[in-house]
Amino acid sequence: MSARERPIRLTVNGTDRTVVVAPSMTLLEVVRTGLQLTGSKECCAEGECGACTMILDGESVNSCLVLAVEADGSVVTTVEGLGAAGTTPLQEAFLAAGAVQCGFCIPGMMVAASALLERVPQPSESEVREGLSGNLCRCGGYPRICAAVVEAARAGGPDA
Amino acid sequence: MTNFDYHRPHSLVEASELLSRDDAVALAGGTDLLVAIRNHRSHPAVVVDLKSVGEISGEVDIEGDLLRIGGRVVLNRLIRHEHVSRHFPALVEAASVVGSIQIRNRATLVGNICNASPAADTAPALLAYSATVTISGTAGNRSIPLEDFFLGPGSTVLARGEIVTSVDLPIPTTRTGSAFRRVTRRKGVDLASVNLACVVEPSGVTRFGFGAVGPTPLLAESTLEDLSTEDGWSRLLAVTSPISDVRAGADYRRAMLQVHSRRALRSAVDELGAAT
Predict the structure, then answer these.
(1) pLDDT per residue over A43-55, tens digit each?
(2) Residues of A in contact with B37 (CB under 8 A)
(3) Which of B18, B49, B150, B225 has a CA positioned 20 to 30 A from the CA of residue B266?
(4) What is the pLDDT of residues B198-256, one digit of tens each?
(5) Backbone angles phi and psi of B179, in degrees to 5
(6) CA pair distance B43, B29, nearest whole angstrom
(7) Over the stretch A16-32, which tens digit does the pLDDT of each residue have?
(8) Rounded to whole angstroms, how far apart are CA atoms B80 and B96?
(9) A29 interaction partners in chain B (CB closer than 8 Å)
(10) Percentage of chain A exceeding pLDDT 90
(11) What pLDDT, on the 0 to 100 scale, is given for residue B225?
(12) Measuring CA to CA, how many Å separate A43 from each of A28, A137, B78, B183?
């Protein structure tokens, strides 16, 4: 451990983890490389694409723009934490709608959609579009992704 | 990212002390700072995280006739605040177009101002609503009008070690009409080519805030009577000096200023009419 490195505590997907980090490491880097949870993706690394979206203390954030040291003591949910106990209505709806093409944006989409449904349990299509506007899909699969979120809300309500 | 030391002070005194080094930077939401560090536009040796400073509030408070937006208030908190949407709808509209939901969950209003982008979306509305900035430093506290805060792109009057603890808005004593307008290349998650806000008082006093059409966000005042003439519009817009850049040409910006200022005034006057 170099002079600058320090241990931080995170509750990730319900499990308490302690990890040693350098101040310049992002939450995304620590979760991917330190904790080996590679569902969250790094893509633009400047808060445009949303592929790194995680839920930090109840709010969706771009984890590429959060220092790991800032998150010390926080509760984090990554895509791995969604549906840990079997597939959720949201995941079922993505599968049924064929919403996944190359798949790179999907972890961020799932987490952003989950945060949206937490706040707005029955969103309209336009609320879904607004709620996912921080997540880019390079395949352009937006119609099916939005349809899947609307369907998931219908099927599962806030538990989607 | 290149390495730096990280501090998370609990008091303003401690934070000011840490920020008095010329290679130290303040961290609030981090949505601009971390991008700047990663892109090598900022090379801090010390990052001072203000999120645990007790005297910097994460709340919107009403103190007498002022609405006080604490230095740690993130944009989504501002947007969802009942008093802000009641008294300052154009600010809510402006804050709602900054970045994405994920960005607005982290980015602070004060950070948006301190970043001093000429195109900062919240600045025109804050200027038009007569915002003041409360600043704390080792030499004491001061409060200045927002229009005196900006010096140029990325540059403010903040001295080394000074920290903005809140942005304060006078709560209107009579109903006002206001509007926000914005021109971008695409619909979402884009910087403005032109942004502006307009506030009209029942007396006819009219204030415009303009963004992305000068080296800083700009304030211009006029009256409804003056704005009934072309000369009045020329005087109002004389404060602006658009340039051509990657987002828009100077001519296009001038044209959009003309169109959108008039539309904003019309919306604000309609809103005022509906309120009285």
Answers:
(1) 999 999 999 999 9
(2) 24
(3) B150
(4) 999 999 999 999 999 999 999 999 999 999 999 999 999 999 999 999 999 999 999 99
(5) -155, 150
(6) 18
(7) 999 999 999 999 999 99
(8) 10
(9) none
(10) 90
(11) 97
(12) 11, 11, 29, 27
Q: Has residue B49 got a pLDDT over 80?
A: yes
Q: Which amino acid is at B192?
A: A
Q: How confident is the model at residue B190 (pLDDT cuts 50, 70, 90)?
A: confident
Mean of pLDDT values over B187-207: 91
3-state secondary structure chain B: CCCCEEECCCCHHHHHHHHCCCCEEEECCCCCHHHHHHCCCCCCCEEEECCCCCCCCCCEEEECCEEEEECCCEHHHHHCCHHHHHHCHHHHHHHCCCCCHHHHCCCEHHHHHHCCCCCCCHHHHHHHCCCEEEEEECCEEEEEEHHHCEEECCEECCCCCCEEEEEEEECCCCCCEEEEEEECCCCCCCCCCEEEEEEECCCCEEEEEEECCCCCCEEEEEECCHHHCHHHHHHHHCCCCCCCCCCCCHHHHHHHHHHHHHHHHHHHHHHHHHHC
Alpha carbons B96 and B72: distance in angstroms, whole number: 17
Partner-chain residue, chosen from B5, B30, B188, that has the shortest CB–CB distance to A70: B30
Helix axes A142-156, A89-97, angle to 10 degrees: 140
pLDDT tens digits, one per residue of A99-113: 999 999 999 999 999
User: Which residues of chain A neighbour B5 with C-beta distances below 8 Å?
Assistant: 4, 23
Main-chain phi, psi angles of B85, to 5 degrees: -70, -30
Give residue B95's pLDDT. Answer: 97
Pairwise CA distance, residues A93 & A156, whole Å: 10
Under 8 Å between Cβ of B184 and B253: no
CA distance B160 to B150: 15
Mean pLDDT over B163-168 rounds to 98
User: pTM for the full model?
Assistant: 0.95
In one letter, which amino acid is B186?
A: R
The beta-carbon neighbor of B47 closest among A23, A46, A116 is A23
The CA-based angle B211-B212-B213, given to 5 degrees, is: 90
DSSP letter (8 states) at residue A101: S
Question: How many angstroms separate the CA of residue B91 from the nearest CA in chain A?
Answer: 19
* Residue A128 burial (10 A CB sphere; 0-12, 13-18, 19+): buried
* Residue A48 contacts B, CB cutoff 8 Å: yes
